[in-house]
Amino acid sequence: MLPYDKGLFDEEMIPFLPAVNLRYNFVPTLSWKADVARVFRVPTLNDRFWIAGGNKNLEPEEGFSSSTGIQWLLKKEKFSMKMQASVFFSELEKAIVWLPGLNGIYAAENIHEMESKGFEGEVDLAYTTGKWKFRARLTTPVVSSKITKSDPSFDSGIGKQMIYTPRLMYKSEAEITFHTFSIRYYHNYTGYRYTTIDHAHYLDPFDCAELILAWTGTLGKGSLTLTGGIKNLYEENYQVIAWRAMPGRSFHGGLLFTFGK
Question: What is the pTM of this model?
Fold first, then answer.
């Protein structure tokens, strides 16, 4: 259980926040886990005072979150595979959400009640032979996040998917490493996202990819890592927020020096 948080918000004591975490191994390669916790989140400074859109009268979010899932791990001499699947459920009262206004400016509001539930699956594969290493991972969350109760101004959104919350996403990653060189590829998909609470408008799905090359070596008593990459590899035309275009293809580089071992 989490210890009592003695912080204050608006001169009121933050409540006791219990949490329970359970783990059980059926066999060495198969395990189960479950988590339940009370949630209490005070508004951030941006939520309260950002200009424009901050709302200094916001109240803290309250609710609970829970999840449960299984994991299977297989290890051989050169090959390993991890598979896991989980479901989650949470409820929030007075959830803090930024919603677009008639003037196009987003403002923070306390939606009375919100419910989120869904599924997440992951597959992680790895293979090593000599100086070569291969790895691939795929994660797919499916999310239903809805307003379940609110004041009359949000009636048209009750029971509908929350704005800017895709029901379906996937994140994939592949990496090849040879000795001190590596190449890593990311490919993410984001599904439909509604931009109004009545679902009259939405953003189209998009794919976005990134490619990164890296080299790691020693320099004196430290280590040096050089990286170079391409973001938005296929120059996808997409929007994360309505009417705000995202950058096209771009290039970046990095240098990291670590002193000592």
Answer: 0.82
